[in-house]
Structure formats: structure tokens, C-alpha cells
Amino acid sequence: METVISRFFANADHFGSTPIFRFNTGGQWVPMGWRTAAGLASDFASGLMSMGHEKGDSLSIISQTRWEWAICDLGTLAAGGITVGVYPTMTADQSRYIVAHSDSRFVVVEDKKQLAKIESVRSQLPRIEKIIIIDPAGVSLGGEKMSLSEVLSKGRAAKHDPMERVAKLRLEDAATFVYTSGTTGPPKGAMLTHGNLMAELHSVDRVLQVKEDDTGFIFLPLAHVLQKIVSYHGFWKGIPGSFARSLDTVAEDMAACRPSIVAAVPRIFEKVYARVHDQAAAGPALRKKIFDWAVKTGLGVSHLRQAHESVPRRMEIEHALGSKLVFQKLRDRLGGRVRLFITGGAPIAKDILSFFDAAGITILEGWGMTETCGAASLNLPGASRFGSIGKPLPDVDMRLDDDGEILIRGPMVFSGYYKDEEATKGSFTADGYFRTGDIARKDADGYYFIIDRKKDLIITAAGKNVAPQNIENMVKTDPRISQVVVIGDRRPYLTALVAVTPELRSSRSEADLVAMVQEIVNNKNQEMASYERIKKIRLLPGELTQEAGELTPTLKVKRKIVNDRYGSLIEEMYSEPKAAQGVATGAG
Questions:
Q1: How many domains is the chain partitioned into structurally?
Q2: pLDDT digits (tens, 9 = 90+) for 153-190
Q3: Residues 273 and 310 in one domain
Q4: DSSP 3-state assignment of 382?
């Protein structure tokens, strides 16, 4: 019986010293071989076993994405344990909740900063026996606190062989608890088994064939199911990957590492899209004219390809020239080798997909959830439909309920929420389909289109159903707009909180910004039904952030928190006299 961890060790024997990872240290990109990585994972497992780790024990990891995260994860699986990822952006109390709820006996923290979180709530974590620090600089070790290097040394000395535990793993055994984002309440721990992981990997592999020279790029949080599954796919298929230094260096690191397959969230593409257009607008008039021409030509070609129509020879020549003059620079910034971007976690605007397609960069939009072990549907190369989430993956049984909610059944669907039988029971239909909470429609060709989260749908005072994400994405296609939160549930009309890009916020007056956003919203309103139009706006003082608790770790808006925090601005838009109704002329 094969599991991710058994295949990882088998691949290590096969690939030997061939690089599995690349990471940056001291400004240099350093490779790590498969055999070395397997040795470290085995040493970590042995170290845990020597400290009393039993099969089925949970271990929490609180760290930025880095190669040590992966080693601790693999080592925990090798010891027969359960990995629990905790986002490093979480507060001390949020971290405490997940560590405590998951019954973790061991915690791995990245550094002094993350250690301080655990120490501040230590009295509320009675089950914790050891705290393992990846980078112990500035930390006084001893007692329950150990460095990662100490655990590895302890494991080498103990010489426990974890392969006996690996061989005894069953597909129904839990491999990882992935905690939901918690946009509406405490996060729930989705239990993903070794069988769930293998079913997902086999399903993806049947439609997304990798090549021998493919390489990956790892920068999303490893606590999130998307990056976790993509990374496991690399371990399973033998695809090497590079670890970005941070989210701030993604573009620079991609250019250096030159990956071919990359998983990302829509916010990354939105930022690249905005930056490219800003740079074009700020350049000389002739360069701007060439940019506009290349984009127009590329979009024309993209449209014809989407419609499966032939591209005229002259347009092909013009597109090739525009690609060389304009788009090659963008591709080079992304490393020059990316053949597939896979995006999920939130909707991405069709205009952005079209732009990247025009630039010769394929973005495959998919859909899935923590509870479905990652992707459940995906657009495929040569068979994608912009704006859709594609078609169900093999072995995924997907249908729509009477109200349009997506229902899912299949071997990759999770086994339930840890220590929450009531939530587990309420998440499934009587015939065993998981209730996803996403409302969608299906076209005649079998492509699914997400309308919105069931809980996020706005029902206006007039009884109209409005999907706020569609409106928000439409407004965000203007590169000057960073974020939009549409308001209007049980209200007479729609309003919006808007954040402009930081560059504009620092260089323009409030009055100018309001006038600019008014014009953008008015123009976008013309593309919407009357009940979908934004009647008033208020500018946010800055971008919404994870640190302020306004975004989830995958950069989705926590609507309730935003609504509460900016309640006074929202109420202003609904308390003005009718004569003032329309797009707001002030920022509140």
C-alpha cells in the first residue's frame, strides 16, 4: 500500500543526490539532494520517537514557508504522526486554539518571534511536551525548548528506523489536520487521511501530466491545502522545487529559479497585472502605444482561441511581434519557463486571465476546498473556459443541489472535522455528498461557474440575489483599485468599501482619489444590471491586511470583521438623504 511518505522514501532511493529542493542562504541558491532530505526526515522521525512520540500523535508547525517546514512535515508522517499547520500570521490566541484543539504534543516554531506567541499562552497548552525551534537565534534553549538541529542529532544517535511505522500506515489513518480559514467563526480541523491524499494526487495526475524537466516553486503557506497538495505531488512524482525567501521576493526568486509549474492565489496575479499596467502608463507615450497595441492584439488572439476559432495569419504575425516586444519581458520576470500557473482559493477576473493568456502565460483556474483535499475541478491546457472553475476531476462526483449549491462525493473528500461530530454531520447530505457552501451554475458543455459563497450572497431589501465577488472582481480589473468589499445585504442598494493601490494613496490627495474611484465605479456600473450597481463608495484608509485580521492567510476578505471595523463608514452611506444618493463624493 503506497502513501505519500512511502513514495517519498522510494523516490529518495531512486533519485539519490539529484536535487529535491533549492533554497536561498546567504544570497546563494543551494540545492539539497533527495537522499539528504530523506535522511533529515528520517532523523526527525527518530528524534520524535526517542522523545515518546506515538503513532497518531499530532505535531503543530508555526513557520513561514521554508524547507525545514517540509522536513518536519515528512518526518512527522514517517513517525506515523499527524501534521498540523498553523499560519505564522496568526495571533497568539489563534495559534493557541489550533495547537490545543489538535491535541498536539509537540510544536515546531520558526524563530524567537513565533516562540514568543506560544510562551505567552503556554499555561493554556498543558499537552505540549516539547517546543522545537527551527532558527533558535536569541533563544535560551533547555528544558522543553530544543533546536531543530538538536532533535535531528538526537534522532541520529537514537537510530530509530521509522520505516516500520511507515509500512504499517493505513489509508484510513489521519495524515494531516488542515484548519479552515475561519471567516465566520473558530476554524475547524478537517481530517485528511493518507487515502484522501493519494486519491487527490492520482486524480490530479490523470489530467495534469508533468514532464521530466518540470520544476516547482513553493511560496504559499504550507498550512494551506493548495500548497500542501502541490508539494506532496512533487514528492510523489519526483518533481524538484525551489523555496521562495518570502512573499516579498516572489518575483525576484522566480526569475532566479525559473520554475515551470507554479501554484498561486488570484491576489498574486492581480498585483502583477496592476504593476505591469502602471509601468506602461508611466512610460513614454510611444512605449505606451506599443504596449496597448500588443495587448489588444494578444486579447484578440486569446478570444479566438477561447472560441476555438482559427487565428488569421496576419494576426498571428502581429501577435508574435507584440509578444517579443512587450510580453517577453513579463515572461522573463517570471523566470521564462513557466508553462502552467494553477490558481484557486478565490475567483480571478476574466480580464486578468485573458491578459495573461495574451502574454503567452497559461493560468489554469481550479476550485476546491480544504475538505476536498484541494482541487475538485480544474480547467485544463487547451480546454479551459475563462471565468469557470473547469470540470470535475476524475473520481469526483459533483452535482448541484436545488439551490445551486455544489455537492461533492469522492475518495478525496475528508473524513470529518476533528472533535466536531455535529459540524461533520451537518456538512453532508443523507446520501453522503459534502455540502460545499458554494453556489454555482453548470453550462451545456459541463463547465462549472461559481456564483458566490452561499453565506456571502447578498439579498437586497427588494429581494434581489447579488453575488458580491463577481462585482468586486469586475471593479478590481482596474489596476488602480487594490481591494473592494461590496455591502448591501437587507439594504436598499449596494455600496462598497474601496482600497486603492499604496502608490496612489501616497501620491494623490483624498479628493482626487475619490473622484478617480467614482469614475471607475461609474464606468463599471454600466456593465451591470441595475440592482448590481454600486450606488455609493467610501475609501478605506489603506489596504486590508492579514496582520490586522482583515484577510485570511490565503488573502480572502473576512467580511464580518471588515463590516464591523468600518461600520461607521458603511452606515454613512445608508444614512444620507435621498438627494445625496449616488456614488459618494467623500471618503468619510
A1: 3
A2: 999 999 999 999 999 999 999 999 999 865 556 789 99
A3: yes
A4: coil
